[in-house]
Design a protein that fits this description.
By secondary structure, this protein is an all-alpha fold. The protein has two helices and no strands.
Length: 47
């Protein structure tokens, strides 16, 4: 059974803040792209 790290109300607030944020700078975008390549998502767990 999956468990969320945050409750739905907190997730909604996080999404609203992210929607208000401006676009990243070129340096921020490059750093984020590099980090996403280095940290591959974990494979899905069996239920």
């Amino acid at each position: 059974m999956a468990r969320y790290l945050t409750d739905p109300a907190t997730e909604t607030e996080i999404q609203a803040l992210a929607a208000e944020a401006g676009l990243p700078t070129v340096d921020q975008a490059a750093t984020l792209a590099r980090l996403l390549r280095l940290h591959k998502p974990a494979p899905p767990r069996a239920a």
